[in-house]
Amino acid sequence: MTSSFNVHDAAGYEQLMGRWSRKLAPLFIDFAGVAGGEKILDVGCGTGSLTFALARTADLEEIAAIDYSPVFVEEAIRRNTDPRIKIRQADACSLPFEDGTFDRALALLVLHFVPEASKAVAEMRRVVRPGGVVAAAVWDHLGGMPGMRMTVDTVAALSEGGRQLRGRYCFQPMMQPGEMKRTFVEEGLVEVTETQLMIRMDYQDFEDYWTPIAAGEGPLGKYVATLDAAERARTDAAVRDAYEAGRPDGPRSFANVAWACRGIVP
Questions:
Q1: In 3-state terms, the chain is what percent helix, strand and coil (to 5)?
Q2: Which residues does the UniProt record annotate as the domain Methyltransferase type (predicted)?
Q3: Which of 22, 114, 145, 169 is the most exposed place for a label (fewest CB within 10 A)?
């Protein structure tokens, strides 16, 4: 198992995270320094948020995209109309490409769901030519996602299972300050730079926020799916109360920060 992210339905993922990945993608592309004429690898493409943003951003020669989930791969292929883009199922820790194939290897919101994240970084470095760039971004679950922490802290207050979820959620790989940078250096990349990227997640109302989680998408949804009927009702009510925060249901906006790191292949 090379991914700890669970997905049931592409549309559910889009509501949970895909729409926000699309907002983050242009910031990440700028940070990665993508230039025209390059061959790019998108590692962990999901439904194509970064892949299709790359196609719109620069006159690239080739975009290869891989993901571990057949659900994501099927949906990304269905959406693709660009002949430069080739999408396939593959493992981030064992990339099916020759050494030095690409000018850049990018991973947007992926490495924190790869248990052997350092191995994925090593593979990204391997398939990039000398002088090329490896770049990645992950959400700061501990300190940079107040909208999700709102739910995580709520369920942690309700049960021991919720507290265990919080421990896993807040300390996934690559999320602590400097952790990705250290890994990039350890895997032999040079001129390594780490920064923060921020977007806002804007929800229409509680249902817009809660529906994909309630349907079992993502790590929070996986936890909610384990609850019995009574626990589920108590959790739904408590999270709604946290979302509404004493005001009528309606739009809410949360700032969200991702750690981003890039390095050069020597």
A1: 45, 25, 30
A2: 41-135
A3: 22
